[in-house]
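note to self — DONT lose this again. spent like an hour looking for the file last time. sequence + predicted structure for the chain T wanted, 181 res
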Amino acid sequence: MKWSISGALLGVMAVLLIFARLENEAPTSLEARKLISTELNNLELIRYDTSGRKLETSHADHAVQLEGDSQMLMGGLHVEREDEQGVRWQLEAPRGLSRLSDDTLTLTGGVIVTRGADVTLETDELTIDANTHLASSSSQASIISARGITTGSQLQIDFRGGTAKLRGDVASSFSKGTSEK
């Protein structure tokens, strides 16, 4: 009986010691989770300039804005723009992030850009600035046409002028064929 009382007393002291240690430890903090403030399916946005000319039409299969954020996460993006020469640009990406604070849309996850029917551009990410009418990418990019492929480490598209430029480590390969005159 002596051993059982002293064993119980030792057990109680061990439990009290464990509780005392737990109380002295700093609590672990869990990151606060934001609530969804807006969730949209089949979103379509049309952007106009100050004179009322249509600049672009954007479609997203799914869009989510979290509470307190000035940005919107999007999936299944398709953007259409027309340059000043009347040529239509189409941009496709699986994901995107629209920032209201600086009026930009960043397409990610493998972006495919077509200009008219003759040129295709590919890159991992592309940021469109609605104010300057420029799109830029700092990831590897390719311009693909019927004549060949040109790659570079940076891409810039001017939607007003209807041009695309590759910069940094630019390399080209052209296929044999007849030249058009």
